[in-house]
Design goal:
Structural class: alpha+beta
Number of strands: 23
Helix content: 25-40%
Radius of gyration: 23 Å
Number of domains: 2
Number of helices: 14
Distance between the termini: 29 Å
Shape: globular
Largest sheet: 5 strands, mixed
Strand order of the largest sheet: 3-23-22-19-18
Strand content: 15-25%
Length: 472
C-alpha cells in the first residue's frame, strides 16, 4: 500500500489510463464555463427532486443536499468482473455463516471464530435460533464497501448486511448524468443500473412465504418521515410499485400480517424493513418501540411473512467479526478470499493493543458498532487531545474498537471550486440475494470533497459520483 494515492485516471507518467481516454477527450472539449453550469444544473435537479438527508445535531437546519460531482468514475469490464466474483463469494459465505450461527454453530465449535465474540454480541439475536428463513437467505440486500489503493489492489472496508442505504443516490446520479451529458453516454458503453428496483422486486418476490398465490404483496416499512433515509424509503417503494408503510399501518391477526387500506385489511407477504431489529416488534424486542408492529416476529417465525433483511444479520457485519471474514469464506466455501480485508488490529490482544496505543497518530480507530463516519479517529487528521481521548476509550473497552492502517485511498478527477482536482473515493456496490445473487454493475461512489480528506461519508461533508462500469 503505497503512500502516494493511486490516481484512477492518470498514470504516474501522466499518461491517461485506458478506461478514461474518452472522458479526457470530452473534458478537453468543454468550454470554460460548461462544467460549472452542469454542476449548478445538477444541484437544481436534486433540489427539485427533494434528494436530501437529515443531519442530526446540526445547527444549520436538518435537511441537506448531498453534493454531486459531475465527473463520473469509470471502471473497466475486466476490473468489474474481478470485483463481482469477490463480492459474490463474500455474500455467499456470510449468508452461510448466518445460517450456521443460528443453527448448529459449527464454526464456533471448530474454534475458527471466538464463541464469546458472537454470543455476547449485541447484534446476535437469540430469538432467531433454529429459524429457517425462505431459501435460507438472511441478508437479501447487501452493500459492500470497497476501497482501491492500486491498479490491482482492492480491499473490502466493511460489509453492510443490516439495512444498507444509498441506493437511491446511485439511481438518481445516473438519471442526472443521462440528462446532463447524454453525448458522453453515446461514446461509452455503460452498463445500466436503472433495473435495480425491478431486480429488488424480483428478489423480494422470490423469498415470499410458501403457499402465496399470485403476486406476493410487498411493502417497505419505514420509521417515518424524520428518518435520515426517508427519501430513499419512499423512492424505492414508488419505483418497485410497493406500498410505503409505517408500523401503525400494519397489524397482525391470526399469525398473519395485514395492511390497513381504505378497502379493508390486505394480507402482506414480504416486508422490506428499514427499521432496526430492536424496534421491529415491541412484544419480542424493545417494549417501548412505537415504530414496529406488535406480533410481527411471531408471524415471521411461523413462516407467514418474510422480513428483508432478517433480524440478527448484524452479527455478520459487526466490525469485530469483519476480521474473521477470510476465515469464514475458507470455512464454508473451501476457498481463499478473492477480495482482501484491510489489515486490522484486534485491541483485545495485548501486543496489538500496545502497538496501536504507540501509533495512534498513524492509524484509523473505529467503534465496532459505529457507522456514518461517527465514533472514529483518523490518526493523521487528529489532535493530541482526540488521541488521548481514544487512548482512554481503548484501554477501558478494548473489545469495542478495531484499528486499521490509514490507507492511501485511490483518487478520481473531481470538479471543485478551482477546476478539476483529484479527490479520494470509495465504492459501495449493491447485492441482491434471493433465488439468485445479482450485483448491480457499479454502485455508489462516495467522494471526499475536502482536499486530502479520507472521510467520504455524506454526514461528514462527502459527496457522490455516478459510477460507470464499461461493457465489453
Amino acid at each position: 500500500m503505497s503512500a502516494t494515492p493511486f490516481d484512477e485516471m492518470t498514470n504516474a507518467d501522466a499518461s491517461v489510463r485506458a478506461p478514461y481516454h474518452i472522458l479526457e477527450e470530452w473534458l478537453k472539449e468543454q468550454p470554460p464555463q460548461a462544467l460549472g453550469l452542469m454542476s449548478a444544473d445538477a444541484e437544481a435537479l436534486f433540489r427539485r427532486l427533494g434528494i436530501t438527508f437529515a443531519v442530526y445535531g446540526s445547527n444549520e437546519g436538518t435537511e441537506k443536499l448531498i453534493p454531486f460531482d459531475i465527473i463520473p468514475r469509470i471502471i473497466s469490464a475486466m476490473e468489474w468482473r474481478r470485483l463481482s466474483k469477490g463480492i459474490e463469494q463474500r455474500v455467499r459465505a456470510l449468508n452461510a455463516f448466518l445460517y450456521d450461527i443460528y443453527h448448529r454453530q459449527e464454526i464456533l465449535k471448530a474454534g475458527r471464530v471466538p464463541e464469546k465474540l458472537i454470543l455476547n454480541n449485541s447484534a446476535f439475536c437469540p430469538e432467531m435460533m433454529g429459524l429457517d428463513p425462505a431459501r435460507g437467505v438472511y441478508s437479501h440486500i447487501i452493500g459492500v464497501d470497497i476501497v482501491r489503493t492500486g491498479p490491482d489492489d482492492f480491499y473490502v472496508l466493511e460489509d453492510n448486511l443490516r439495512t444498507p442505504s444509498g441506493v437511491s443516490y446511485m439511481l438518481e446520479n445516473r438519471e442526472a448524468m443521462l440528462q446532463l451529458a447524454p453525448e458522453l453516454f453515446q461514446r461509452y458503453k455503460v452498463a445500466p443500473v436503472e433495473t435495480y428496483p425491478e431486480t429488488l422486486r424480483r428478489t423480494m418476490e422470490s423469498v415470499a412465504p410458501a403457499g402465496v398465490h399470485g403476486s406476493p404483496n410487498l411493502v417497505v416499512l419505514t420509521p417515518g418521515i424524520h428518518n435520515s433515509a426517508y427519501f430513499e424509503h419512499s423512492f424505492l417503494a414508488d419505483q418497485m410499485g410497493a406500498e410505503l408503510c409505517e408500523g401503525q399501518d400494519l397489524f397482525v391477526d391470526g399469525g398473519k400480517v395485514y395492511m390497513r387500506t381504505t378497502k379493508g385489511p390486505e394480507r402482506v407477504d414480504v416486508i422490506y424493513r428499514r427499521i432496526d431489529d430492536d424496534f421491529l416488534d415491541p412484544l419480542t424486542f424493545r417494549p417501548d418501540s412505537m415504530l414496529g408492529v406488535p406480533g410481527l416476529f411471531d408471524a415471521y417465525r411461523a413462516g407467514n411473512v418474510t422480513l428483508v433483511n432478517a433480524p440478527g444479520t448484524g452479527i455478520a457485519d459487526d466490525k469485530a467479526v469483519y476480521v474473521y471474514v477470510p476465515e469464514i469464506i475458507e470455512f464454508y466455501l473451501g476457498e481463499k478470499a478473492l477480495l482482501k480485508n484491510v489489515p486490522t488490529y484486534n485491541c483485545t490482544h495485548d501486543d496489538e493493543r500496545a502497538y496501536v496505543l504507540e501509533h495512534l497518530e498513524e492509524l484509523v480507530v473505529k467503534e465496532v458498532h459505529g457507522s456514518g463516519g461517527y465514533g472514529m479517529l483518523v490518526g493523521p487528521a487528529s489532535t493530541k487531545a482526540m488521541r488521548e481521548e481514544f487512548r482512554k476509550k481503548i484501554l477501558a473497552r478494548p473489545d469495542n474498537y478495531i484499528v486499521q492502517p490509514t490507507l492511501a485511498l485511490s483518487t478520481c478527477p473531481t470538479f471543485v471550486d478551482k477546476g478539476i482536482a483529484p479527490r479520494h473515493v470509495d465504492l459501495r456496490p449493491y447485492v441482491l440475494c434471493g433465488d439468485d445473487i445479482r450485483i448491480t454493475p457499479g454502485g455508489l461512489t462516495r467522494v471526499a470533497l475536502k482536499k486530502g480528506s479520507l472521510v467520504v461519508n455524506s454526514s461528514q461533508g462527502g459527496g457522490t459520483k455516478d459510477t460507470w462500469v464499461l461493457e465489453d
